[in-house]
Structure formats: structure tokens, C-alpha cells
Amino acid sequence: MAHTRRRQSGARSASRGRRTAAPREPQPGPTLELEVERIAHGGVSVARHEGRVVFVADAIPGERVLAQVVDAGHDRFWRADTLSVLRASTDRREHVWPEASVDREPAQRPGGAEFGHIRLARQRELKAEVLRDALARMGGVEWDVEVLPVRPELAPGVSVDDGTGWRTRVRLHVDAEGAVGPYAARSHTVVHVTSLPLAVPELAELAPLDERFPGARAIDLVAPSSGAAAVVVEGEGRTPRGEPPVIEEVVGDRTFRLDRDGFWQVHRGAAATLTQAVQELVDPDRFDPRAANQDLYGGVGLLAAAVGDRFGAGVRITTVEADVRATEHAGANLAEWVGARAVTARVDRYLDTLLAGSASERAGLHDATIVIDPPRSGAGRDVVDRLAELAPRQLVYVACDPVALARDVGFLAERGYRLEALRAFDLFPNTHHVEAVARLTAIV
Ligand SMILES: C[S@@+](CC[C@H](N)C(=O)[O-])C[C@H]1O[C@@H](n2cnc3c(N)ncnc32)[C@H](O)[C@@H]1O
User: Which residues line ligand 1 (CB under 6 A)?
Assistant: First the structure.
């Protein structure tokens, strides 16, 4: 495709001579019959056409499908959508969200349920395969991964049969005419749907799918574990001034307060699942309650509380988070631990201040356990290098992206840390996402 470069006076000097590439338009290609070979990261499967990789959506490894190439603009791979299934896998089932099924026009299928046509147990095997492959390729470790379902007692009301009814946060979008819906898969086009099966039942009922919101940008649906569910309309003149409403989330015997629009784990049972996983994965023989323990990317203090509950009232732990409101809540949520602190900071800068500490401060860090729960992009080289320099006894890494985790496991291996334990959980049934909790320890 020919790109036209727009000339704007002053644009070149403003960008100091750098040219910014215009977003690439996808180039539609042919309709193909494809043998689907294996799963890839991102919820698509790998097929081949004349030697070229084709990433195909809405298929299952082992199937033969008729697929429309939606982007033939790359030399090395194309992207395609399944139009119909010519030979179905025994793992195929009715899609849990009829509107996302292959029976609908690809451009009209909502995103966010890209595994909904696959038996639940097989979804977990595919997620395990992606994590195992990523760890082998990027992390340099062979690890036999099993992805476990959320335990039903931790997620009351969530269907264990088909993986529906778990989402406590849903963002819908509003189009130019004010119509509401999710984005179509792999696009920013709002599509109309009549149901939200992945949402917890109270949100599925509340969702204003047939209403119009002219001028609004998005509709956020929030169902805290305690108190009423809410529909929040975002857009010009609609965001209320002043402090955002505060909600409560209950995990076991604990209540966490947070802003209604603040970060919280999305699956109804996720916070309890991760609490248990972190408590189990911290090696008690390596844990020193008086060391300078850390909970990095700490949100409102969920995982610092998990460590505190596991090791008792005397635990020292600092939770570090970039969002000021979240750290204010974390300070209050962790008030009962005299040794707990909540710090507002970017993790990389915070680690720089730790690295500049005195010899006795550095010794306290050397004995520390550091829990780290970064956003989807992972910790990355800069943070990993700083962590390795602090040389804590153990790291407990909570990850929502297998490739970012595997990359960071690889970086940590270069810096003398090895993967010692790993658990993976299906905190996002019917999507391709998977959560993992890993313990890495210093090789001595
Ligand atoms: C995956 S959430 C985890 C939150 C918390 N551990 C929990 O389970 O509720 C990641 C958090 O990291 C915060 N964050 C993102 N980038 C950050 C950075 N560079 N430094 C500090 N916090 C950051 C986000 O605001 C978010 O609260």
C-alpha cells in the first residue's frame, strides 16, 4: 500500500526531524481453506498458506476452516478470520456468546471472548501451551505448566460449566450515534449485542445495551463484591467533579476500600485466588518478617495484605504504586500492620532510591521477599536489572501476560535468578488470557 505523507508546516521541526509513521491500514487478501496447526499467543491459531504463516481467529488447532485474510500487508505473516468450519475439532462447542460465534459476520463479532467456542478444559490446555512455549523460548526454562480453574468456593455465582458470569468490570463503548456496545474483535468499531454472558449476572442485567448515550464516550459497569453494582457514563461533561466514589471489595475476612474507577482484579474470584497463590508461593524458609519486604505495583495493597496475613502482625512490607489515590487507600487498607507502608512512586524510580540506600538498608533488602505484579507489559529490563542489583532472597512475580513473564524470567536468569515454582490460573475464562504466579530465587 502506498503511504501518503502529509506535509504540515512546522511539523518537522516540532518533531525534531523524526518522522512518525501513519497507522498502517490492513490490506484484505484472499479467502483460503486452512489446516489449523497450533495455538499462538494472543488468542489466534497458526495455519500456513504457501509457506507463509497465517494467524487465524475463531479456529481451534486440528480444524480445517474457510478463512478470509483480513490483513495481507506483512511479508512474514497474514491475519485471517474464520468464515466457516469445514472440519470441526471435537473441542468445538456452541459459543458461550452467540453474537461472537462464527455464524456472525466477522466484523460484527464482539471481542473479548475469543476462546468462547472451545471446551473449557481445552481452553486451559491451550493457555498452558502458550505459557510453556513462551517460557521455553524466551525464559530458557522447560516447565510443565498446568492452568487451574478458579476454585468455585472462591467465586460464588460464577459458572464452572461454561466459564461465564465472572467479569465484575466491563467497559462498553459509545458510537457517534450514541449506541452502546463492546468493540468488535481486533477493531475499535462499536457493535450491538443483546447479552454480556461473561459479566457477573447483576452487570449483565444492568447493562444499558438498548439505550442511547449521545455525546458519551464509554460506559463502565462495576460490580463490587460488597454493595450495589453501578453504571458509570463517561464523556464530555459527565465525569463528576471532586473525589470519585469509593467502593469496598471483600476478600476472605478482609475488606479493601478503593476508588470505583481504580484497579481491581476483574474475575469475581481473582483477588482470593491470587491471595492464596502468593501466600503459598512465598517460601517461608526464605521469608524474613523484619527484612525490607516489598509489594511492587501494589494497587490498594491486596498482595501486601496477603503476605501480612500469612506471616503475622509483625511483618515489615512496603507497597509501591504510581497512582496517588490507590496508595492512599493502600495506607488505610494496611493500617493494622504497624510495619506496613504505602508509597506513591513509579517502581523504577523507587528502586533507584533503594539502590542509593545505606549499607544497612541494602542488607535489609538482600534479605527481602519482593512481590511484583506489573501491568500487562511486565516489569521489563530496567526494573529487572534494578531488582537483580538489590539481590533479594526471593521474588514472587504475578503476571497477566505469559510472554512478558517469560521475557522477564529470561532477563532474571541472566542476572542469577531461577524459576523455582509456578502456578497458573484461568482468571479470564473464554478469553485467551491467563494469570501466572512464579517464585524466583537467587542462585547461590
Ligand atoms: C496488575 S495491577 C496490580 C495491583 C495489585 N497488586 C492488585 O493485585 O490489586 C498493576 C498496578 O501497577 C500500577 N502501575 C503501573 N505502572 C506502574 C509503575 N511504573 N510504577 C508503579 N505502579 C505502576 C497500576 O496503577 C496498577 O495499580
Answer: 263, 265, 297-299, 302-303, 321-323, 326, 346-347, 373, 375
State which of 199, 218, 245 marks the end of a domain: 245
CA distance 100 to 46: 20
**Same-domain check for residues 411 and 330:** yes
418 CA to middle of ligand 1, Å? 24
Q: So what's the ipTM on this one? A: 0.99
Contact (Cβ atoms closer than 8 angstroms) between residue 129 and residue 436: no
* Residues 106-117: tens digit of each pLDDT: 999 999 999 999
CA 254–ligand 1 middle distance (angstroms) = 20
Catalytic residue (choose from 72, 342, 400, 434): 400
Q: What is the pTM of this model?
A: 0.93
Question: Nearest CA to 388 among 361, 370, 401?
Answer: 370
Is residue 309 domain-resident?
A: yes
pLDDT tens-place string over residues 292-303: 999 999 999 999
Among this protein's residues, is 400 annotated catalytic?
A: yes
We report the CATH number of the domain holding residue 65 as 2.40.50.140
Q: What is the C-alpha to C-alpha distance for residues 422 and 285, in angstroms, rounded to an integer?
A: 17
321 annotated ligand-binding residue: yes
The answer to whether 401 touches 130, Cβ cutoff 8 Å, is no
For residues 337 and 422, state if they share a domain. Answer: yes
